[in-house]
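Title: Prediction job returns without error message
Component: structure pipeline
Severity: low
Priority: P3
Assignee: unassigned

Description:
Job completed but the reporter wants confirmation the result is attached to the right record. Sequence as submitted:
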Amino acid sequence: MQTQSKKKLHGQYYTESAYSSLLVNRFQEDSVSVALELGVGGGALLSAVSGRWPDARCVSVDIDPQHAQEDSARPVQHIHYCADALTLELDNVIGLMSGVADIAVCNPPFISADWNTSYSVLLDRAGFKVPTKALRVGADLLFLAQNLWLLKDSGQLGIIIPAGIIFGDKNRAVRETLLANHCITEVIELPSKAFKNTEVKTFILNLQKNKTTNSTIKLYRCDKDGTIEPFIEISLEEAVNRMDYSYYEWKENFPAKSYGPGKILEVFRGGISTAQARQLGIEVFHTTDLKKQLKPGRIFFSDNFGEATCNSNKVVAQLGDVVIPRVGRNIEGGVHIVEGGKALISDCLYVIRCPGRTPEELYEALTSREGVAWIKAHTHGACARFLTKSDLKKFPL
């Protein structure tokens, strides 16, 4: 049994059988000679591969020696290596030349790694742009690159990745590279909390290496049993921006015209952290204070908050302002109107104002069915969810 601290060290969150079966059953290969899994963990993905292609030679790699001990019952044709899956010489370590694997399955660890100069080679040989000033890099991108390098042309990769590559602004170049060089056959959005002990939003990305992408990409969403909903089809131009089912479902169900004429929102992010406030000995209103309010959706600041606003050049929330969290698990449920007093707000909150609209009108728009759907569709983040200022300013009224 893995200890929680060890799982945290390696970013290990094991794949449930329902999602393993779903990922493997989506492959379009009739026969498989060589199957690869980097970061095998508990072995659920390769077990599903062996179940579908019993004669396939399965090669697995994991840095944690515990997994080699647990899987003594592996079939003879399943060869496991205890090694760092991101080493540049992995082909020599496992005796599998680059460009040989018919299929690859992968559930990368949910961690970021300190930048290593070898990662430049790893990313470059897979066709990804090498960052010039990187301090850390997501393991999901590194594992994606390593899998593509080992996979044969037209070979299929099924990889479970967090939301960043699917719709993160910082990973736009990654999506451009994937769409330009490979055929993304589908993206399946997994349910919330698909992996125990983590809030990471995850997706199955299915692609074929070095094959021209179709003119459209199909997006799916599945439930906890692995049952998928009818697909949504998007263009390659849309896919460059994002490839998550929930966002395009929102676009279909709540078109911008349903809100009426738009207004430009004024959005101000709090300028002081709670740690800074403690050092200065002042009271700052934080996301945790939203839960302490006596009336749902309403804030009345006590006098001790008001004292900190004197002679301050930081963002102050006051009567008539609408306040919304910038980060958190339930951003859409954190919309509040200030009904009295004033306070410095932390950098985890936004103050919103809209010339020509009353606070009540703004509050009702943000908390309406359409508004909640909009916020959910525009939040980012793998672990901690966040809403950007630039997105919030475009909220349609």
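Comment from assignee: result matches the submitted record. Residues 1-14, 257-262 have pLDDT under 50 and may be disordered.
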